[in-house]
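A quick word before the example. In earlier lectures we treated sequence and structure as two separate objects. From today on, think of them as two lines of the same record. Here is Glutathione S-transferase written that way.
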Amino acid sequence: MTIALYDLVGEDAGRPFSPHCWKVRMALAHKGLEADAVPTRFVEVASVEGGTDRTVPVIRDGDSVVQDSFAIAEYLDDRYPDRPALFGQPGGRGLARFVEGWSQRTIHPFIASVAILDIHAMLDDENRRFFRESREGRSGRPLEAMQDGRTPERLAEFGKALEPLRATLKRQPFLAGDAPMFADYIVFGAFQWLRIASPFVVLEGSDPVAQWFERCLDLHGGLGRSVPAAV
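And the structure line, produced from the sequence above:
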């Protein structure tokens, strides 16, 4: 039975952009598992699979419904141990948790600060209202004030913050070593979010992080490239 993946989209159902859903897309491909994407708009997320407080990604695999990208990756490794591992040796899950925590506190906030208006523009009218009201309600600022990262100073700060990634990727092709694992997909999801949502460039092509990202785009038959970059 094919796995169903509830995948966040905007007005164009063919341009899924959620960083967390992209982690799961890559994880499913890594495991060699077939999946059918279920395009899901912001206003539909909470009620996915009969829920009242859902977040995406969510998968349905037979009778099993799993929510949250990391929980889904753990489920896939436990449910399909005969397929390529997402975490590897004991301790791999803990290390991937560190990567996820670092990425969500370092990369995600910066991407939001340079692309939040581009994300808003991807949505239909109903979801634009929802997106604006929910984000402005949490931050107490208009979206226009939240997009404050496109300055040389902020870009330079972000570049420095990526130095742990850069130093690692100068030594090896993937964060996990010679081949990718879920830790790579965690960080890939963040940069894929920006690539699909916004034409704003944050990495020079010569940057080892940019070169790693290009390698990730080519993985699994070019899955990452199946959705064109924003223009």
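Notice the following. The first strand starts at residue 3 and ends at 8. We will return to this example when we discuss secondary structure assignment.
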